[in-house]
Amino acid sequence: MQTVGELMTRSSLVTITETQNLAMAEELLRLHRIRHLPVVRGGKLVGLVTHRDLLKAAAKCGGADPAQQPLWASDVMVRDVKTVRPDMSSREAVKIMLDNKFGCLPVVGADGTLVGILTEADMVRYAQHLIEDMDRRSLAAEYEA
Hints:
This protein is α+β, with helices and mostly antiparallel strands. It has a single domain, classed as Roll (CBS-domain), CATH 3.10.580.10. It contains six helices and five strands, in the order H-E-H-E-E-H-H-H-E-E-H. It has a three-stranded mixed β-sheet with strand order 1-2-3. A two-stranded antiparallel ribbon has the order 4-5. It is elongated and about 65 Å long.
């Protein structure tokens, strides 16, 4: 069984601070083709801004582009974010994601420092690996028969 730490995104982890504006958040999401942006203060997770949060902000601005408004990450971020540890089993993390309809789970170390993020895309990549492995085993079994 794979752990969260083995599957999570860590090397290309993109973050923002509370004091950065929504234009920066929107640009980072677009540039990196991601939907979840952890908000950090001193390396510790303090919130999460998602593409959906930006859409909600736009609705509150009467359809105006929230990136053009004087809004900060702290204005739209979700503060009470469910996190997981790198040593948690992927099975347990998937259950949390499915039960709560989460698109991601920020991964924090024992000291609360953000060390990665587990996303739906990470889990789909893992599922692809498992399917390919099953296909190889099936072909090997057919060949041996």
